[in-house]
Amino acid sequence: MLANGQMELHEVKGFWTDDARVKTKVAADQYPFRIIGVTKLPAKAGGGWKVEEF
């Protein structure tokens, strides 16, 4: 929960499967929460995290 009272969900994945991405998008449409998807980037791509908002 953010300071302004808004709920925010963080979905952390090593990698996305197609069904997991679809389920996350459906949840983002059905619920009044901001959903942030975070995926680990491989070391050869510089490492770190890729952040997506649904």
Give an overview of the whole structure.
- It comes from Klebsiella pneumoniae.
- This is DUF1064 domain-containing protein.
- This protein has 54 residues and is an alpha+beta fold.
- Helices cover 24% and strands 33% of the residues.
- It contains 1 helix and 3 strands.
- A 3-stranded mixed sheet has the order 1-2-3, covered by helices on one side.
- The chain is flat and about 40 Å long.
Helices and strands: which structural class?
alpha+beta
| First-last Cα distance | 17 Å
Count the beta strands: 3
* Bulk shape: flat
Q: Estimate the helix proportion, in percent.
A: 10-25%
Total of helices: 1
In the sheet with the most strands, the strands line up as 1-2-3
Average predicted local confidence, pLDDT: 96
Main pleated sheet = 3 strands, mixed
The SSE order reads EHEE
Q: Compute the gyration radius: what is it?
A: 13 Å
Low-confidence spans: pLDDT under 50, at least 5 residues? none
